Ureidoglycolate hydrolase (Pandoraea fibrosis), 70 residues
Amino acid sequence: MRAFVSDGWQGVNYARGVWHHPLLALHEVSDFVVVDRGGEGHNCDEQDLPGVYLLTQAALDAAQAAQKAA
């Protein structure tokens, strides 16, 4: 499981078949623009995870520090 931090002005593309959690913002307003494919065929696969995953403050702080260093 991986997570990333955005500066709020970045675009994100997920590769075909990559599971992703719905977009969310921590401690901020969560306004997003989402472009999804159209057309026929199945467009949403839901998956139950085998356990609980938590995003800790320490992990968030580390991701933000890495973003600033880049």
